[in-house]
């Protein structure tokens, strides 16, 4: 698979500062598919300088013109959607249909939403005898993960451009080819030189350099809570803004009045989607005592239907981590009802779709983010007990509530300490704010709330 051997900086592909490279491996067959440059401090510095140079003109560009460029970017993504989907499948291992529908379809929708929002958002308002202006923060350092390689890029870059910010992107080292295609799309869409820049590289080198750079005004990071803490500390020392979308251990609360079969089947599908590599996955299924045994049977049957349909996890390290959690769950006394630690095939980083019953809230598999196709089913006695269990982790990113009446589900959801809740299987909304409570992060992505992360306010009094 073709890869650029340089960085996209100031509107052109430029040679990297050092010859070191990163291998890109297909998780399905463990075969090498490409090499990309391993960015250095020098590469990051060049990209930030380009972004700073481009910032004044882009910030002064009328919102309608910025909207037009984002709209053009969306059109390029649509035109190249098959190529992008095939690239995501090659470097992430996602089944092609899922790559087409979700990995490419969702970010196209998000890009379109920001093209519309950039043109319609009120960037100034009258407040008494004041005029309040919403102005771009400046240069954004965007650090994105591998699990949704295009979506996470678009969810940061599109609102930043809409706000009038310029961007330096450091994508995950496992999925850099998708980021390179995105840079090509930005160029084809006519985004001015320096407004968007790409540096591939390792997190501890290029990512850290970007977070620490004095020319970066805001760091937008999606990834683990541990790394998010480090970035928050670094940004705090420099008094720069951060937007952090971190880990999750979301609860799927099935109330007794719910359609149990539907709630369980949708819940299992949610966990297995993207091979469980979703920060907002409903990895804890909470079921009332009276329905517990039936739910366990339904979940085990549903998981057994997935097999290799879900694809592998991203790399050997991730596979070993997930398998380690499955073994720990068994060791801690949880009952394995589907899947297990054994590899389903000799080649590739595959993990069996796994379901545990008799999980207690304090177990590691019920408290820690596994980031693999592993579901824990937990029983509860009453609503108060369900609420205690659901809120009983350090995370608060997402969740779900099922009930016979929507009002019952909403009443329970309002008491959850989490940033986003799906009611009776509510659909993804690209304009709804996404982000977490507690250690799941700081700030929001998507829609007008996501745009606000890249804006700062100025008031003039008359």
Q: What would you note in describing this structure?
A:
- The chain contains 15 helices and 22 strands.
- With 462 residues, the protein is α/β, with parallel strands linked by helices.
- The strands form six sheets. A seven-stranded mixed beta sheet has the order 14-15-16-13-12-18-19, sandwiched between helices. It has a six-stranded mixed beta sheet with strand order 9-8-7-10-11-21, with helices on both faces.
- It is globular and about 65 Å long.
- The mean pLDDT is 97.
Brief rundown of the structure:
Belongs to the aldehyde dehydrogenase family. With 462 residues, the chain is α/β, with parallel strands linked by helices.
Strand content: 15-25%
Low-confidence stretches: none
Whole-number tally of structural domains = 2
- Given helix and strand content, the structural type is alpha/beta
Q: Which oligomerization state do the chains in this entry correspond to?
A: single chain
Pfam family, one: Aldedh
Keywords: Oxidoreductase
Organism: Streptomyces dioscori
Active site: 245
Defining key terms:
Ald_DH_C, 2 domains, Aldehyde Dehydrogenase, Chain A, domain 1, Aldehyde Dehydrogenase, Chain A, domain 2, 22 strands, seven-stranded mixed β-sheet, oxidoreductase, 42% helix, alpha/beta, Aldehyde_DH_dom, six-stranded mixed β-sheet, 462 residues, 21% strand
């Amino acid at each position: 698979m073709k890869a650029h051997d340089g960085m996209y900086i100031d509107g052109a592909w430029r040679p990297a500062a050092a010859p070191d490279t990163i291998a890109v491996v297909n998780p399905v067959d463990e075969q090498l598919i490409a090499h990309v440059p391993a960015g250095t401090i020098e590469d990051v510095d060049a990209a930030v300088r380009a972004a700073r140079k481009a910032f004044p003109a882009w910030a002064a560009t009328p919102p309608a013109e910025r909207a037009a460029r984002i709209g053009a970017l969306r059109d390029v993504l649509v035109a190249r959607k098959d190529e992008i989907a095939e690239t995501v499948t090659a470097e992430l291992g996602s089944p092609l249909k899922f790559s087409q529908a979700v990995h490419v379809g969702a970010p196209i929708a998000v890009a379109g939403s920001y093209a519309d929002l950039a043109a319609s958002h009120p960037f100034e308002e009258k407040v008494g005898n004041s005029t309040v202006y919403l102005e771009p923060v400046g240069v954004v350092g965007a650090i994105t993960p591998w699990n949704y390689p295009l979506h996470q890029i678009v969810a940061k870059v599109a609102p930043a451009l809409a706000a009038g910010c310029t961007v330096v992107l450091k994508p995950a080292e496992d999925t850099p080819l998708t980021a390179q295609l995105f840079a090509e799309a930005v160029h084809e869409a006519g985004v001015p030189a320096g407004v968007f820049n790409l540096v591939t590289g390792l997190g501890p080198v290029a990512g850290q350099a970007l977070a620490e750079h004095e020319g970066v005004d805001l760091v937008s990071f999606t990834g683990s809570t541990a790394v998010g803490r480090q970035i928050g500390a670094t940004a705090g020392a420099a008094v720069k803004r951060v937007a952090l979308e971190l880990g999750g251990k979301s609860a799927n609360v099935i109330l007794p009045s719910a359609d149990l079969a539907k709630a369980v089947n949708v819940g299992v599908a949610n966990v297995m989607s993207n091979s469980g590599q979703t920060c907002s996955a409903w990895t804890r299924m909470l079921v009332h005592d009276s329905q517990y045994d039936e739910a366990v049977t339904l979940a085990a049957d549903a998981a057994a239907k997935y097999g290799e349909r879900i694809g592998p996890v991203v790399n050997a390290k991730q596979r070993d981590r997930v398998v380690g959690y499955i073994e720990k769950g068994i060791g801690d006394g949880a009952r394995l009802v589907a899947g297990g630690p054994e590899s389903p095939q000799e080649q590739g980083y595959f993990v069996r779709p796994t379901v545990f019953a008799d999980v207690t809230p304090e177990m590691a598999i019920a408290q820690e983010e596994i980031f693999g196709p592993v579901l824990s089913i937990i029983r509860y006695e009453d609503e108060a007990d369900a609420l205690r269990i659901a809120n009983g982790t350090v995370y608060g990113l997402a969740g779900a509530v099922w009930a016979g009446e929507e009002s019952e589900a909403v009443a329970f959801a309002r008491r959850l300490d989490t940033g986003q809740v799906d009611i009776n299987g509510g659909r993804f909304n690209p304009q709804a704010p996404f982000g977490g409570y507690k250690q799941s992060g700081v700030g929001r992505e998507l829609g007008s709330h996501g745009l606000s992360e890249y804006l700062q306010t100025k008031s003039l009094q008359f």
